[in-house]
Write a structure and sequence with these properties.
CATH class: Alpha Beta
CATH superfamily: RutC-like
Number of domains: 1
Number of strands: 7
Number of helices: 3
Largest sheet: 5 strands, mixed
Helix content: 25-40%
Shape: globular
Strand content: 25-35%
Strand order of the largest sheet: 1-2-7-5-6
CATH topology: 60s Ribosomal Protein L30, Chain: A
Radius of gyration: 15 Å
Distance between the termini: 18 Å
Length: 155
Amino acid sequence: MTDNTIDTRLAALGLTLPDAAAPVANYVPVVLHGGLAIVSGQLPRGDGGLVTGKVGEDLDLAAGQAAARLCALAVLAQLRAALGDLDRVMGCLQLSGFVNAGPGFTDHPQVINGASDLMVEVFGEAGRHARAAVGAGSLPLGAAVEVAATFAVAP
């Protein structure tokens, strides 16, 4: 990373984090434990509301990638709410992406690149991570994509 703070980098990228969404079931948005921040799965909410539909049927690859990017922004919003400061992030360790995919769709990794690319844009090399990209028959509320992540954080 450079001398810039993460907030400065977000501004330079023209990115604004959404408000951290409240949990909709029996879970917490972020668990902090032993230098780790584990962020629960986040859905793609934009100016038009929740992005829903099946990638490969209702949404094309580019729309799926944009939805994954919105999920990643929501992950960062939850992380900021839990940590108070994204400069505490030492690295993105792992990202899990779930794609609400039509039966013939197989480009799940390309969809989740929307989230992975954002982590690298924001954190530089510290944003590179291990990853899973999984296709699903459905996701909560009909969401197109869901992304969860684990970060190494400074005390």
